[in-house]
UniProtKB/TrEMBL annotation, chains A, B:
<dbReference type="Pfam" id="PF01037">
    <property type="entry name" value="AsnC_trans_reg"/>
</dbReference>
<dbReference type="InterPro" id="IPR019888">
    <property type="entry name" value="Tscrpt_reg_AsnC-like"/>
</dbReference>
<dbReference type="Pfam" id="PF13404">
    <property type="entry name" value="HTH_AsnC-type"/>
</dbReference>
<feature type="domain" description="HTH asnC-type">
    <location>
        <begin position="3"/>
        <end position="64"/>
    </location>
</feature>
<keyword id="KW-0238">DNA-binding</keyword>
<keyword id="KW-0804">Transcription</keyword>
<dbReference type="InterPro" id="IPR011008">
    <property type="entry name" value="Dimeric_a/b-barrel"/>
</dbReference>
<protein>
    <submittedName>
        <fullName>Lrp/AsnC family transcriptional regulator</fullName>
    </submittedName>
</protein>
<dbReference type="InterPro" id="IPR036388">
    <property type="entry name" value="WH-like_DNA-bd_sf"/>
</dbReference>
<dbReference type="InterPro" id="IPR036390">
    <property type="entry name" value="WH_DNA-bd_sf"/>
</dbReference>
<dbReference type="InterPro" id="IPR019887">
    <property type="entry name" value="Tscrpt_reg_AsnC/Lrp_C"/>
</dbReference>
<dbReference type="InterPro" id="IPR000485">
    <property type="entry name" value="AsnC-type_HTH_dom"/>
</dbReference>
<keyword id="KW-0805">Transcription regulation</keyword>
Amino acid sequence: MELDRLDRDIIAALVDDARQTYAVIGHRVGLSASAVKRRVDRLRETGAITGFSARVAPRALGWTTEAYVELFCQGKTKPSDIALAVSRFPEVVAAATITGEADALLHIRATDVRHVERVIERIAAQSFVVRTKSSIVLSRLVDTPPGAAVPEARNGSPAPS
Amino acid sequence: MELDRLDRDIIAALVDDARQTYAVIGHRVGLSASAVKRRVDRLRETGAITGFSARVAPRALGWTTEAYVELFCQGKTKPSDIALAVSRFPEVVAAATITGEADALLHIRATDVRHVERVIERIAAQSFVVRTKSSIVLSRLVDTPPGAAVPEARNGSPAPS
DNA sequence: ATTGAAAAAGAGTAGCG
DNA sequence: CGCTACTCTTTTTCAAT
């Protein structure tokens, strides 16, 4: 699907604040409210925008600890096997297969370090898991909502002061 | 701040769909529309809800490639130094200091592998960076919006079938 | 302290040019 | 695409528990 500059500006506006009115967004991007609505409807239909969500402070919900866990699996493990196994844990908020020594990287949120340990223990107990290597997060430095930046807009070249 | 079951249900509803009407949420949690609005306002004031955001398919915006990069820094590097340096790159969507051999882990989104390479190159050029170790994401298996799950609700013990 | 109901203000939606 | 008219939501106010 083809996105023009207007679509990208609208998306950026909605990522910033999904509850802005169409009129406000329209003023920001130079369009009427109804034109914005039509484009937003189209962006949802085509799947560019997948939904609208409240941003939550994980701490407020009790998720005070997070960790990244590298997964080393047996030779013939399929990505779908890993996906199926780890998606059963609500603590696993992200998972991906990766290049390098490990086969997959998991992002885990838990209530405390003990909780992290329990989850890792259960994941390590899966038959296809050979070993795990965990890193507890000490402090989060950056956490950008996806879609905030646009590739074409800036090309990621901050002047390295 | 103290969150009761109603607050958590409301948050879960808003994470699921931030554009549901207060009336619909109220019906779902057993409250009137105005009661829901008051609670949402309070949740925003206290910082439990930090905002509302459109969920975007990164691919639709041109972010087709992602990578995780471990950062090994010089002995006396402060977390704030790392934060300052990497937050200048729109491609760095997440960053955290971690336990283990590496000092920090970065999550990068880029348009292609060449782009990932360029960004890593620029980050590695920072004075405090000793070396980096990157893993390109092959396929994303899980990507849960934060706040979808609630610690107290289920305790992360799926029956290991 | 928090709720539900009702009135007023505002925004979403659909059809028109 | 922009404009207008209509409908539904949000927001405020008020009384009650």
